[in-house]
Amino acid sequence: MRHNTVNQVSRVFLILLVVTLAAMALIIAQAMGFGLPDASGLKPQGLVGAAWDRQVALISGHAGNDSGAVCEDADGAVLVTEAAINANIADLVAARLRHAGADVVILDEYDARLQGLRAAVLVSLHADSCIDASGYKAAIHAYSLIPATSGRLLACIDQAYPAATGLPHHPNTVTHNMTEYHAFKRIDPQTPAAIVELGFLGGDRALLVDQPELAAKGVADGILCFLEGEKERAP
Ligand SMILES: [Zn+2]
After folding, report:
1. Strand residues in 9-77 grouped as ranges (E)
2. How far is the CA of 184 from the centre of ligand 1 (A)?
3. At what angle do helices 212-233 and 82-99 cross, to 10 degrees?
4. Residues 85, 149: contact at Cβ < 8 Å?
5. Alpha-carbon span 119 to 104, nearest angstrom
6. How much distance in Å is there from the Cα of 102 to the middle of ligand 1?
7. Dihedral over Cα of 96, 98, 99, 100: its sign
8. CA-to-CA distance for 138 and 121, rounded, in angstroms?
9. Which H or E run includes 218?
10. Where are the chain's structural domains?
11. Can you name the CATH fold of 49-233?
12. CA of 62 to the centre of ligand 1 (A)
């Protein structure tokens, strides 16, 4: 009888020890920025803490609607369409962000899911016309209800995209189509959002067609920079 009691007591202590160690491991993981594990399991090493499990929405510009800009050769044969460029780069951006642990969805231009969309960030990917010009540009909603947050997103894109691609900023062609972009008015006003013109299909075609990974890295790095900044600001 006494022997059984001793066994039971040591078993209780063993369970307490295991629970305490598990709790300590969770606290340490949280302190390192990994967050609590959920049903999808513990975060593998090498992922970006700030991106883990965050909802990121990308719009593949013109998808499901039209081709966007179309470049043709002298004989009228189609060389490249903007929609194809946007879709390819959206896929590459999504792959990078998923690798960092984010929950990414790629939306069509007029996707029904844009209505009231709530996400950590929305970025719409477009490319500029076939003229022989070079440069990218990004814009946020002219009437954003969260101008400081949107401004931080824009600053991150303006830092990361030229760093990855080497493309200059081309600000003089930011239009009302960008600052009053239709999706900005449909999403939840608390969702930070930006639209990026990744480069010109004319002057920047070599980058957009042959080195889309560079453009994807620029966009993904900009989004990760924003998520990391927001995480640091969180109480
Ligand atoms: Zn476009």
Report:
1. 55-60, 70-72
2. 15
3. 50
4. no
5. 10
6. 25
7. positive
8. 14
9. helix 212-233
10. 1-32, 49-233
11. Aminopeptidase (3.40.630)
12. 6
Ligand 1 centroid–CA 108 distance in Å is: 12
Ligand 1 centre to CA of 127 (Å) is 5
Give tens-digit pLDDT for 74-106. Answer: 999 999 999 999 999 999 999 999 999 999 999
Rounded CA-CA distance 15/8 in Å is 11
If we measure between CA atoms, which residue out of 107, 101, 91 comes closest to residue 57?
107
Question: Which residue is associated with the tokens 């202590």?
Answer: 13
pLDDT in tens, 4-59: 666 776 777 777 777 777 767 665 555 554 544 444 444 444 467 889 999 999 99
pTM: 0.79
The confidence score (pLDDT) of residue 22 equals 73
Give the whole-angstrom CA distance, residue 67 versus residue 61.
Answer: 9
With contact defined as beta carbons under 8 Å apart, do 83 and 67 qualify? Answer: yes
- pLDDT greater at residue 177 or residue 70: 70
Residues 192/122, Cβ–Cβ less than 8 Å: yes
In the block, residue with structure tokens 């007029």 = 110
List CB-based neighbours of ion ligand 1 within 5 Å. Answer: 61, 68, 126
Question: E strand or H helix at 205, and its extent?
Answer: helix 205-205
